[in-house]
Specification:
- The chain is of the alpha+beta class.
- The chain folds into two domains: 4-120, Aminotransferase class 4, branched-chain amino acid transferase, N-terminal domain (D-amino Acid Aminotransferase, Chain A, domain 1), CATH 3.30.470.10; 125-285, D-amino Acid Aminotransferase, Chain A, domain 2 (Alpha-Beta Barrel), CATH 3.20.10.
- 31% of the residues lie in helices and 27% in strands.
- Strands 7, 8, 9, 10, 11, 12, 13, 14 and 15 form a nine-stranded mixed beta sheet that branches. Strands 2-1-6-5-3-4 form a six-stranded antiparallel beta sheet.
- Strand 1 and strand 2 (10-13) form a beta hairpin.
- Helix 6 crosses helix 8 (269-285).
- The longest helix has 17 residues, at 269-285.
- The radius of gyration is 19 Å and the shape is globular.
- It binds N-(5'-phosphopyridoxyl)-D-alanine (PDD).
- Residues 35, 156, 182, 185-187, 207, 209-212, 245-248 line the site of N-(5'-phosphopyridoxyl)-D-alanine.
Length: 287
Amino acid sequence: MGKITYVNGRFLPHGQAVVHIEDRGYQFADAVYEVWALFDGKLADPDGHFERLKRSLGELSIDMPMSRAALTMVLKETVRRNRIHEGLVYLQVSRGVATRDHAFPTPGTPPAVVVTVSRVDRAAAEARAAKGVGVVTTPENRWGRCDIKTVGLLPNALAKQMAREAGAVEAWFVDELGFVTEGASSNAWIIDGDGVLRTRDANANILRGVTRLSVVELARKAGLKVEERPFTPAEALAAQEAFITGAGTLVLPVVTIDGKPVGSGKPGPVAARLRRLYIERAKASAI
Ligand code: PDD
């Protein structure tokens, strides 16, 4: 059975799923997106992702394309039609289709909505987490509103390609003061020499990761100390552990930075525990 994609009210075979060339997402990256992890056919961390979607749209004055209940139905129906149980659900909402003009189109222009579903091999993901991954660092060069989850991801795509060419899985952006902001598609964390979990403050120019927030809560509940405080790549190299979080990676240990080992160079127990706790919570919260 081929892949099915939702585009503006219709479920279509993937190869026939197209958007107009004057979609503002295509022309101006004038669109936002969300990604949900899918466990057993259900959307993980639903509230966090719906809340952030609402916020991203609100910050850009794009109308919510439909009610949350209707959107949930569309997402779940796309999942069902694809018969995918373990994977990722991608939603994109653009400001719609209009003759090219930088300023907004006429009020009432309907937002354009696309939903795709992809499969994740959970066994392969677990094997990768058991080994840990490498990251590389790169100067922060993104705009000042990384808190909005827009499809304007060119710096992220270039950074990710650089990582891949270096044999790494993620790139960490480093700001002018020398602090890590976040990854190209994940949030960045360390467990410092005092055993304190550190990740960048949500008010910094980063995406407020839904996984990040869940992990902050889970870690505190587990009695770990969490500080939303920046760290440098040098501090990360000297840390006990490092890891990244995101809907795609969940909690994934980082064992090298720019080719140098973090701590022992092996995944540590805290990241492994947080990964287990996060997956349990994601499954319990899924709808
Ligand atoms: N990326 N930071 C950036 C820049 C991201 O793109 C993402 C998610 C995150 C983690 O956010 P969350 O925990 O809500 O997934 C942080 C998604 C998965 C993507 O672009 O595919």
